[in-house]
Amino acid sequence: MEGKASLLDNMIGVGDMVLLEPLSEDSFLENLKKRFDHNEIYTYIGSVVISMNPYRSLPIYTPEKVEEYRNRNFYELSPHIYALADEAYRSLRDQDKDQCILITGESGAGKTEASKLVMSYVAAVCGKGQEVNKVKEQLLQSNPVLEAFGNAKTVRNDNSSRFGKYMDIEFDFKGDPLGGVISNYLLEKSRVVKQPRGERNFHVFYQLLSGASDETLKKLKLDRDVSKYNYLCLDSASVSGVDDAANFRTVRNAMQIVGFMEDEVQSVLQLVAAVLKLGNIEFKPESRSNGLDESRVKDKNDLKEMCELLGIEQSVLERAFSYRTVEAKSEKVSTTLNVAQAYYARDALAKNLYSRLFSWLVTRINGSIKAQAKTRHKVMGVLDIYGFEIFEDNSFEQFIINYCNEKLQQIFIELTLREEQEEYIREGIEWTNIEYFNNAVICDLMENNQNGILAMLDEECLRPGTVTDETFLDKLNTICAEHQHFESRLSKNSKFLTDHSLPHNCFRIQHYAGKVLYRVEGFVDKNNDLLYRDLSQAMYKANHNLIKQLFPEGSPAKINLKRPPTAGFQFKASVGTLMRNLQTKNPNYIRCIKPNDKKASHIFTESLVCHQVRYLGLMENVRVRRAGYAFRQAYEPCLERYKMLCKKTWPHWKGPARQGVEVLMADLKVPAEEYSYGRSKIFIRNPRTLFFLEERRRQCLQDLAALIQKIYRGWKCRRQFLLMKKSQVVVAAWYRRYAQEKKYKKIKRATTVMQSYARGWQARKLLRQLKHQKRCEEAATTIAAYWHGTQARTELRQLKEEARNKHAVSVIWAGWQGTKVRREYRKFFRANAGKKIYNFTVQRIIQKYFLNLRKNLPSMSPIDKSWPTRPYSFLDGVHTELRRIFHLWRCKKYRSQFTEEKKAVYEEKLEASKLFKDRKALYPSSVSQSFKGDYLEINKNPKYQKLHSAVDEKVLLADTISKINRANGKGTPRIFLLTKKSVVLADQKTGQVKASVPLLDLASVSVSKQSDGFFALKLKEGSASAVKGDFLLSSERLIEIITKLYRLSAANAERVPLSVDISDEFLVQFKTDKVCVKFIQGSPRNGNSASCKRKNNRLLEVSVPSTP
Ligand SMILES: Nc1ncnc2c1ncn2[C@@H]1O[C@H](COP(=O)(O)OP(=O)(O)O)[C@@H](O)[C@H]1O
Ligand SMILES: [Mg+2]
Q1: Is 112 part of the annotated catalytic residue set?
Q2: Binning pLDDT at 50, 70 and 90, where does residue 561 land?
Q3: Is residue 528 predicted with pLDDT exceeding 80?
Q4: Rounded distance from Cα 188 to ligand 2 centre (Å)
Q5: In the prediction, which pLDDT does 591 show?
Q6: Residue 115 CA, ligand 2 centroid: distance in Å
Q7: Residue 800, Cα to own-chain centre: how many angstroms?
Q8: Which atom of ligand 1 is nearest to the CA of 107?
Q9: Which of 377, 391, 962, 977 meets the CB 3.0–4.6 Å disulfide criterion with 984?
Q10: What three-state secondary structure class fits 639?
Q11: Can you tell me whether residue 591 is helix, strand or coil?
């Protein structure tokens, strides 16, 4: 339903005053108030927007709002300034119509804010892009700069624009902004030197003093203290809610964005400072000889500083404040200035300096923001000009301002009425003239070239002779007296002679917006706007670029005797240009109203609003709008909106929209005089008719809503039902499938079981048959086998029987033969022959045994264990005995061959076997060794000559052995000698005796069970040899050495034989300590020899390689 929304929906009061019913001033105000109280600050009069200043920020300018109003029809949504901006922008972009937005209203009504809102809306909806954004930014940022220099706090508005501003924004064919041109109108420069009570000078002065850095101030020779400057009014130096310092930064930033160079900014600030300095220059009178007063600068310090700032020669300026040069034709006359004239000159300079600076700023900004491309532009002009002003004391400025407003009202009347009129003509509607007040007469009073007030003022100013404000008033009194809108005490029109509200030095004009009393004082001066030539020349001489530019008339080359055009003339000309400009454009009106005088939110002062409504001519505006037809709408949207009111057009109308509307209106029985059909629009004369339509529509909408609800509910339920039905089918299908599948599986399982049973049964049957068959086959074989076996056994039995029978026969026969023989031969045998035969047989057997034994005797070696087997068991005892005898004999035979020496050797071997067999693992290896004794052949070897001679007894054993070092377990070779009486250890190389131990001193010998050759000779305690401790020695011939030692001790009957301890752990006495020698099985790492290691002072460990 989008697009069919309307401002008629959800309306608070009436959104469009045209529809106000009944229309009266009271209802108008009431409607405004009602809407204002509901925060609806915008109301339409047709396409004119009335804007009430809310004096607080409302949440209606958000980006969302911008989106909402973007590309929507004007009446589609509730009234908003964005709707107007959108309408203007779209007709500019889409219909190629240049637009102007005219914002009017009195000071503080919100014109400047409205202009900013329009600009920001257009900036938000128009094209985007880097270049475009830069242009937009510059256009928007020109505002803070101009506001700082051109706005001031007044009693009505804390940020009142003290100049008129018209800004043309230029767009390309796509609607993208290209740039802009700003025109400024009449800055209120009198404010520079004097401000009314409770008001301030222009913002920039305060901003500079509070926002600039100390350094900047120092450079500008300024003091932060506002009270130091005469031009700055003290009673409202700061405005609540305004942060001058922060605004100064904003302005500096804006200037930068707009494109001001840093030196330009500095120049501008210098000029601002200069104005402040200028205000502080004071004068004192100095009497002169001719009786006239001459002014002198009082304290030259400010003058000096100002001159330094602007690069002006002090004396030149000082002179300009004291003298005035009047040039007439070729003559130059210099006159002195009195103090008042000096002050006048000073203020004139300050005002001119500032207003020219302001104009320069506008030109400079235009230089930055002007469109680059030379193509044709579409233009949207935004006019934010000072509103109608009625003060207690109105002067030239108010006259000028109000003149401008009259002109704007004129153009408003002209354009709205013309537009209205044109629309009727366009649409072919009959047009009847409406009465409205046309302010053309007032404009004429003010601007007429012959007898207009402005023209007469100029005439007075240019007239030679004494010209004063009074002469000007006299002139008015004579010339304008007849005018309906001119009132003056002394005019010929006697009706005001007694009007005491009209002072003598004033005249009154009945403006369209009310009567205004103007005091003539200052009119002439202000219109002349005189700046003494000496001052402009002094300025031109300044060594300051900007100042020079601002005072071009001071240039000696440009000496121009003609008077410059008057202020009034200039203003009239620029207003004329503006009006012509506006007339070429499509106007859009925003009429600002201020709800109260207190700048307060939520207060609606009826009288104040009423006054504004009156002078803005809003009622007339509505009346004009309604004079013909209050409401008009194109046929399509009208049909679309009301077609539900008639059965023929609802829901769809096939024919042209106009016919549809005609059918509709006829059907609704709306009286024919209430509406007319235009070419593209229907025109409704009376709002009542529209409200009737709206009411019918509202009712119908309710019915339609019920219908839609009904259908929707039906549709929803049906849809739900169908969905459920569909779901049910799906569920049922799935369930059936599932059930069938289950059943099928069950049957399949049962079938398989049955099948398997049947197959099993069949198979078993077959198996039984096969088995039976096989058994039958096997039975035959078995039977056959048994049969054959039986046959064979029977046959065997028979054969055996036969054989036994045969044998029995032969035995019997032999027995018989024997019996026969014995019977026969009995007579030939002796009675004991049987015993003899037995003995003979036995002897014969034994003889045979011996003979056999002799033949088979084993070898003579005593170790041969073979022996023939015995032939008969009765010879068992004999056979064993013979074997023993033979062995003994054989041994005897063997022994008998031994020599005495060999015998001794064997005895020794035997002794060794007794000592060591099965007790020490080394023993088996010694069995095959012959115990040679003297291995070194000591008596034959000359090397041992000395040793030999040192031992006086026969050497029983000489060999090289290792003596184990007690400290580290390492072995040292030593010669080991054994004699009958002692053991001698000698050096192996030199043969020198190292130790000699008598055998008697030996207590015991200790060896291990292992295959090593370690042995310890333990000495008897207390013996002489025991002093050095026991010996730990090692020799491969350990078995021989110890056997020999043992035999020697055993041979000696006087002593106990030497004890031989065989153990893997024994103690040895080393000097004073007893050390344990421990043997362990080690891996055969270091070859096959045992290694000895001193583990600690109590343990000597011998690692013996394990015998494989
Ligand atoms: N639409 C608005 N929303 C909120 N405040 C506003 C609005 N319009 C105006 N004002 C307030 O009113 C003050 C005066 O408005 P301004 O536009 O400067 O008036 P004018 O230009 O008509 O003299 C502004 O400073 C602002 O505080
Ligand atoms: Mg303003």
Answers
A1: yes
A2: low
A3: yes
A4: 13
A5: 92
A6: 9
A7: 119
A8: 23
A9: 977
A10: helix
A11: strand
Q: Which is it for the CA torsion 25, 31, 35, 37, positive or negative?
A: positive
* 3 pLDDT above the threshold of 50: no
Pairing of strands 1065-1070, 1059-1062: unpaired
The number of C-alpha atoms within 13 Å of 741 and in the hemisphere containing its C-beta is 6
Closest CA to 179 of 227, 132, 240: 132
Q: What is the DSSP letter of 917?
A: T
Q: How confident is the model at residue 44 (pLDDT cuts 50, 70, 90)?
A: very high
Residue 979 CA to residue 998 CA, distance in Å, equals 9
For the purposes of burial, counting CB atoms within 10 Å of the CB of 290, is it exposed (0-12), middle (13-18) or buried (19 or more)?
exposed
> Which 3 state secondary structure label does DSSP give 57?
coil
Under 8 Å between Cβ of 185 and 163 = yes
Give the pLDDT mean for 823-852: 84
Residues 6+ apart with CB under 8 A from 779: none
Q: For residue 663, give both structure tokens.
A: 């059918």
Q: What is the pLDDT of residue 365?
A: 95
Predicted pLDDT at 329: 65
Place of tokens 């409302």: 58
Per DSSP (E only), the strands in 685-793 are: none
Ligand 1 and 61: CB distance under 6 A: no
The residue whose CB lies within 8 Å of the most ligand 1 atoms, and thus the one to mutate among 39, 159, 612, is 159
Determine the length of the chain: 1108
- pTM: predicted TM-score of the whole model, two decimal places: 0.62
CA–CA distances in Å: residue 963 to residues 960, 1031, 1035, 1048: 10, 8, 9, 22
What is the distance between the alpha carbons of residues 912 and 1090, in angstroms, rounded to a whole number?
22
* Alpha-carbon torsion angle 855, 857, 861, 866, nearest 10: 130
Active site residue 211: no
DSSP codes of every residue in 312-329: --HHHHHHHHHEEEEEET
Q: Give residue 493's pLDDT.
A: 59
Question: Which amino acid belongs to residue 61?
Answer: Y
Task: Say whether 108 is catalytic.
Answer: yes
C-beta of residue 52 within 8 angstroms of C-beta of residue 591 = no
Mean pLDDT of 549-575: 83
Contact 81, 47 (CB under 8 A): no
For ligand 1, pick from 50, 113, 153, 156 the residue to mutate: most ligand atoms within 8 Å of CB: 113
Element (DSSP H or E) covering residue 684: strand 681-684
Cα distance between residue 598 and residue 156, in whole Å = 8
Q: Which residue has the higher pLDDT, 1021 or 8?
A: 1021
Rounded distance from Cα 165 to ligand 2 centre (Å): 9
pLDDT band, very low/low/confident/very high, at 831 (cuts 50, 70, 90): low
pLDDT, one tens digit per residue, over 588-642 is: 999 999 999 888 999 999 999 998 898 787 887 887 777 777 678 888 888 888 8
Q: How far apart are CA 966 and CA 640, in angstroms?
A: 131
Q: Is-contact 384 103, C-beta < 8 A? A: yes
Q: What is the pLDDT of residues 423-475, one digit of tens each?
A: 888 888 877 666 667 888 999 999 998 889 999 999 888 888 888 888 998 88
Whether 387 sits among the annotated catalytic residues: the reply is: yes
**Atom 24 (ligand 1) nearest CA:** 110
The whole-angstrom separation of Cα 28 and Cα 43 is 11
